[in-house]
Amino acid sequence: MSKELSQKYYKELVDLKNVEGVEAQFRSLLDVQIESVSDLEKWLEDEKELMFKINEAMTGHHLDFYRNTEDKEIKSTYLHDQQVIQPLLLKYEAKLSEKFCESPYFHELDEKRYGLMRRVRESKVKLFREENIPLMVKEQELCTKYSEIMGGLTVEWEGEEKPFPFIKSQLAHLDREVREKAYHAMMSAHRQIKPDMDAIMDELVSLRHQIALHAGFENYREYMFVEKNREYSVQDCYDFHENVEKHIIPAWNRLADVFKYKLDVDTYRPWDNTAKLLKIPPYSEVSTLMDGVSEMLGKTDPYFGERFNYMREHGLLDLEVRKGKGPHAFCEPLLVSGDIFVFANFSPSHDSLSTLIHEMGHAVNGYLEFSEHGPFDYHQWRAEIAELYSFGMQLLLLDKLDCFYPDEEDFKSAQREELRYAFTMLFNPLSGDLFQHWMYTNPTHTAEERDQKFFEISKRYGLNPVDTSGFEKEIGMSWADTLHYFHIPFYTIEYSMSMLGALQLLENYQNNPEQAVESFKKGASADLNQSIAKVYEETGVRFDFSEPVIKQMGDFLEKVIQDIH
């Protein structure tokens, strides 16, 4: 393994290979006598300390695996966590939650500090079934298999074997012929892995449906709404789907006409529906990418730049493309170390620049929370809040893209692409959410029906203005490229909700930049025991996805794009 990959960036304060020792620590917590509210609070602190140690070790092993999916020793450690430690965690988390909820002092805890924890842990007790543990272990094994397949996926390109992310980056090429060639290459790669993807998803849907039935739910969707402790209903989601289709898609079609005109094409094809008006990638080396993002963050707020530089210096960023590296990009907190790690598999493209800024929004949010409140517990993390600051960071840095695009026209094109992306994040996650509603309320569907449904929903939303003739099957199977459907089901609608908030933040920034940045920092360091709406309020925006707000933000976004002459 290279020196870079062997660098230790997390703490292992608990030996997960010593299963008996880990279990003994759980049993010790279960044996504690709790005879007062202060005893219960002390017990919760001890429990949290143990969970943080286990979480950091498992997170580190997970990152090690994603950084090098081909290393057998790393894979063995990661699989041990998934197959041995994870079942133990599920078992004892349920027992500890039961002990907590049954304590006579449970309702005497301060509501402001412990109210959210009580609701989340009551849900855990409600959902837990011993017979689901092996199913959840199998679920993780299938997700690992998906990551291995995607991490090892390569495509022949101009006589060379290239990692799949490189081919995706070519969809942003200025030359339409190159984009089309890349699109065909991607579809060929999808066909190559299609049988494996179908088999994995078929089994995941079946497993998840069984998990829900065991817990007394009609389907996995109903189970997940309780598991996620959502502060909105299934019907609210359906209303959101419809309102975006009604008010955002017509505006998206108008913008597609603008891009069609600028591309000088008669027909808007699938390979045109990407970032493609920028003459060259914004960087060629990852070091250049990091230099520029550091400058952008520092210009927005000195703290933002300082955090990025700290992460860079301490080996907390792994960004370049490598064979055997896992797919996609994500941000992971290290709860004992008090650090954040950003993982990505980047090839030079505007999308990778945008994604790094997005992940740094998560990182800054995490560091601010660590600084203000200490490491956050699992029950406090809600995607609707986390994604507000990742999207918010992208929009706060919109006026600093000239760090990568000094040419005025390129600068404007880059801004248009970011705003076009904001549009897509209002509807693409919703189409993914609707797709999952369908999958898990129709658990006996076939692979063919799944592909047909994905194509149908895609045409209602992001592909509405695109001529997809001849590519119906290819588009139908492209759901397999979305990690969320495999690893984190029902985690997509949160993107759309938070983008509405981020657009409000952009509107505030245009009126008063300094105040908007301070509001961002205030919200990003807010007490996470509050409701989602309250945290948004502290950020100076509203957690509101009603029809009037959707129409207002769609109109605002369209106006901002048109204002970039």
Automatic annotation (TrEMBL):
Gene3D superfamilies in the record: 1.10.1370.30
Lineage: superkingdom: Bacteria
Keywords: Hydrolase, Metal-binding, Metalloprotease, Protease, Zinc
InterPro entries: Pept_M3A_M3B, Pept_M3A_M3B_dom, Pept_M3B_oligopep-rel
Gene Ontology MF term list: metal ion binding; metalloendopeptidase activity
Domain Peptidase M3A/M3B catalytic: 175-554
GO terms classed as biological process: peptide metabolic process; proteolysis
Cofactor binding mode and count: Binds 1 zinc ion.
Cofactors (names): Zn(2+)
Family as reported in the entry's similarity comment: Belongs to the peptidase M3 family.
Protein name per the record: Peptidase M3A/M3B catalytic domain-containing protein
Species of origin: Pseudoneobacillus rhizosphaerae
Phylogenetic classification of the source organism: Bacteria, Bacillati, Bacillota, Bacilli, Bacillales
